[in-house]
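Title: Comparing notes on inverse folding

I've been comparing how different people in this forum approach sequence design from structure. To keep things fair, I'm posting one structure and asking everyone to reply with a full sequence. Here's the target:
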């Protein structure tokens, strides 16, 4: 079978998960192709593939605005025989509220003749709000690695389940869609400090083409979707991200070394993280 991955990833977590899932599918004899969702990308016709996978990070309990825009442009498929799609998402928290992020992608896809057959969610370290410890990042990645082979088996067999979302979760997610309207304005006010060395990494990374280098300094236009790629990847930590600056996280996670023990999980949402880790690890033990 041929699988196409279309992946939006600001800071690499979703790309990392999707690329491991692609490896798992290839190990089962399937072909995969991956296309980043960026304004400077060109894409093949998704109808040419047996199955389509959409990778995205959760942004304010929703799919990023860039992903919704991308899906709205999908060529229409046969509604009587809808093309199967899987959603693969990463989020910084293991909260069920993040399931609401699938509502709008599902609706858009259905309208265009595609059907979401299954959804997979993986907790990966935060790229905003606060920095998870390296040990937490390792435990998260191990939990994802543990669960991905089963996802590949299920996808290859055409199975999968969709997650129910109650009215409360829908309402919260709907209210926070404000992020989609706010980010272009907030992002326009991102600024480089004196630490900036004009390397251009931020401009190259931006999936929206929102950053232009002017006289050796980044200038931000009005199409930011808040992916945090620029601030996270700046080698000098030289970007101020306007009102969100107190939540800035800079620098790649290594995903190497010892994982956090239960007792080392931070206090924030501790029970949910431990429940998530145990559920991934128990699944592995049952094999
Ligand atoms: C603007 C923004 C909003 C976010 N909102 C949420 C959220 O609502 N829930 C959550 O669990 N994580 C949230 N996150 C964290 C990311 O979903 C998480 O770090 C993800 O793995 C990043 O993936 P990426 O590296 O592929 O961009 C948010 C991140 C950003 C930048
Ligand atoms: S990545 Fe950082 S140092 Fe490089 S141009 Fe952008 S702001 Fe300046
Ligand atoms: S300006 Fe920065 S945060 Fe906004 S879309 Fe570009 S890389 Fe992402």
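Reply #1:
Here's my take.
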């Amino acid at each position: 079978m041929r699988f196409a991955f279309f992946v939006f990833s600001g800071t690499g977590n979703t790309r990392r998960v999707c690329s491991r899932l692609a490896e798992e599918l290839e190990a089962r004899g399937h072909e995969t192709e991956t296309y980043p969702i960026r304004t400077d990308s060109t894409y093949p016709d998704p109808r040419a593939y047996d199955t389509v996978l959409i990778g995205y990070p959760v942004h304010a309990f929703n799919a990023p605005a860039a992903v919704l825009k991308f899906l709205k442009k999908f060529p229409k498929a046969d509604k009587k025989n809808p093309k199967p799609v899987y959603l693969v998402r990463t989020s910084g928290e293991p909260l069920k509220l993040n399931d609401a992020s699938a509502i709008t992608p599902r609706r858009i896809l259905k309208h265009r003749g595609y059907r979401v057959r299954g959804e997979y969610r993986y907790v990966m370290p935060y790229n905003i709000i606060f920095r998870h410890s390296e040990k937490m990042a390792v435990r998260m990645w191990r939990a994802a690695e543990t669960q991905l082979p089963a996802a590949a088996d299920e996808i290859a067999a055409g199975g999968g389940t969709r997650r129910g979302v109650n009215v409360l979760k829908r309402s919260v997610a709907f209210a926070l869609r404000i992020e989609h309207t706010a980010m272009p304005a907030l992002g326009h006010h991102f600024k480089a400090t004196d630490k900036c060395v004009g390397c251009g990494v931020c401009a190259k990374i931006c999936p929206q083409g929102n950053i232009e280098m002017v006289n050796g300094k980044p200038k931000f236009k009005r199409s930011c979707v808040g992916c945090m790629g620029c601030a996270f990847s700046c080698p000098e930590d030289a970007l101020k991200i306007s009102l969100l600056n107190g939540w800035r996280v800079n620098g790649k996670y290594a995903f190497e070394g010892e994982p956090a023990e239960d007792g080392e999980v931070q206090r924030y949402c501790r029970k949910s993280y431990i429940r998530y880790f145990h559920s991934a690890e128990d699944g592995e033990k049952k094999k």
